[in-house]
Amino acid sequence: MQKFVGTGVALVTPFKKDLSIDFTALSKLVEFNIANGVDYLVINGTTGESVTVSKEERQRIVDVIVSVNKGRVPLVLGLGGNNTSAVIAEILSSDLTHIDAVLSVAPYYSKPTQEGFYQHFKAIALASPKPIILYNVPGRTSKNMDSQTTLRLASDFNNIIAVKEAGNNVQQYLELIKNKPKDFLIISGDDDLALNVVLAGASGVISVIGQAFPKEFSTLIRLGLQGKNKEAYKLHYKLMDIISMIFSENNPSGIKAVLQCLGIASNEVRLPLVKASEKLQKEITNFVTNLD
Question: Is the whole-model pTM more than 0.85?
Answer without folding.
Answer: yes
